[in-house]
Amino acid sequence: MPFDHLPPLLRTSSSKIVLLVLDGLGGLPIEAGGPTELEAAKTPNMDRLASEGALGQATPIRPGITPGSGPAHLALFGYDPLEYEIGRGVLESVGVGLQVKAGDVAARGNFCTLNEQGNITDRRAGRIPTAEAIPVVEQLKSISLSGVTTEVRHVKEYRFAIVMRGEGLNPEIDDTDPQRTGVPPLSAIPRSPAADHTADLFNQWIAKARQALADNQKANGLTLRGFATDPNLPTFQDSYGLNAAAISVYPMYKGVANLVGMEVIDFKGETPEDEFNALADVWQEHDFFFIHIKKTDSKGEDGDFAGKAQIIESVDRALPALLNLNPEVLIITGDHSTPAKMRTHSWHPVPFLLWAPATVRSDVQSSFGESACARGGLGNISSMDTLPLALAHAGRLEKFGA
Predict the structure, then answer these.
(1) For residue 52, what is the enclosing H or E element?
(2) Are 257 and 373 in a shared domain?
(3) What is the reported pTM?
């Protein structure tokens, strides 16, 4: 169980905690001495919270380690990602309602574009929209293999999830995404002899999928990532005594929240305003709220510095609706850094803002940005410190020892 020392200290409280995660929030200046995306954004509401609260920097895994989104979120939820390893396939699958039991093997799929030589020209098939991708997923549902069953479901845009069920399956398989263009997709390679049979089955499925997709203009190929099975995680309720809710647009983050026992809230819309309205609708029913903003990460991966700053600004404009609910504790941070300059996740620590009016020891910083956070009163913390800090400031922890 994460933080085994915490359950004996937990106490009942009516306090509310909000964890607002801007995916890939951390950034870098385009030119030396310039602002990061967060510093370039106009964020009067976050700046006010920074002046009233305390700032710091959070390291998702360990210094120098670049995290994926799954392990980075597990760290924010207090689960050591080096102990609880969850493949992206499980997160995507559970996020769209596919059941993944022990012994099943799930993977996340990306549609991609292949040229006549079979080399990848676009790893995301031109980011085909959901309406265009759903019929492509339907083409995959007819594929059958002897001795196992497969279930395929669309996730979002160019992404899908696949779950394979049968006897003797093992998820120790390397990704088939080479992470670059100009080369063909990789084969499913087992990392141990125990996974030989499973890798062979997935390679059979991939070959049939290639045939089914061959006539498509954009999504004529695919790659698979994050082979995994049910990790059997301790629940959020058992670990922290919290009745937790998750509000997210993207299925993968619904998946990780579901795996730790949060209630995933259904709502309409995709904007920060829509997410904060959904928060207000369930405010009386829960005491912990995880809110996820995806597009900061997407813009960073696209190398769109200005676009990432604009997404941050859109969150800031919507913040009054959240603040009007008067949470006792509000934490604003990211799961990892995705600098537009690098177009990918990075190892840089993530800006961290703690606002808890009744208990916070405020520092001298007055704006929310990487430079201010590097000088903030919280210092450099681990992302795994997020939940203990939130619980303490929410009055939910007893004294340790006599």
Answers:
(1) helix 44-52
(2) yes
(3) 0.84
